[in-house]
Amino acid sequence: MEPSSERSAHQTSRQDRPTLPTSYGVAHDHDGMLSWGWVEEQLRDARSYWLATTRPDGRPQVIPVWGIWLDGKLLFGTSTGSRKARNLARNPAIAIHLESGDDVVILEGSADELSDAALFARYTDAYDAKYTIRPSDGTDDDAITYVVRPLRVLAWLERDFLKTPTRWTFASDSPLGD
Fold first, then answer.
1. CA angle 146, 11, 14 (to 5 degrees)
2. What does pTM read for this prediction?
3. What is Dmax (Cα atoms) for the chain?
4. CA atoms within 13 A on the CB side of 71
5. Cβ-contact 52, 95 below 8 angstroms
């Protein structure tokens, strides 16, 4: 199955099965793989996003945030003094998991500070529409907004786990690699 044609401007470079132990019994053909449109719907409709970052000593930090899926990227804001912001300043690698453990979407990527004023304006409008609160307008020195471009996305439906595990790998020159 080819990646869905209903996608954002952010194009996938490859859709395939994730590498899983053969003892799991997951199909090796492409039948049942999920569409990119389904993944984007989950990312767009999620209320909270669980972020995993790495502390300076290598320990993980996991925390939920509110965010917006826009133009094939996840955008979220925080205080520059927060643990997640300090972690991302040292190491921009990030993993994001949606709330469900049954309809699973896991995004791996790199978080960069949002510097595009037009995208920030669209983000604040979308954030206000979704959460009925406007994020900082950027004049607050303590606020930072991140944009996460996916490098890899994993998704599956627990109720049909043997057929649905799907991985998307995006073209990138990031050192995170595969």
1. 110
2. 0.86
3. 54
4. 11
5. yes
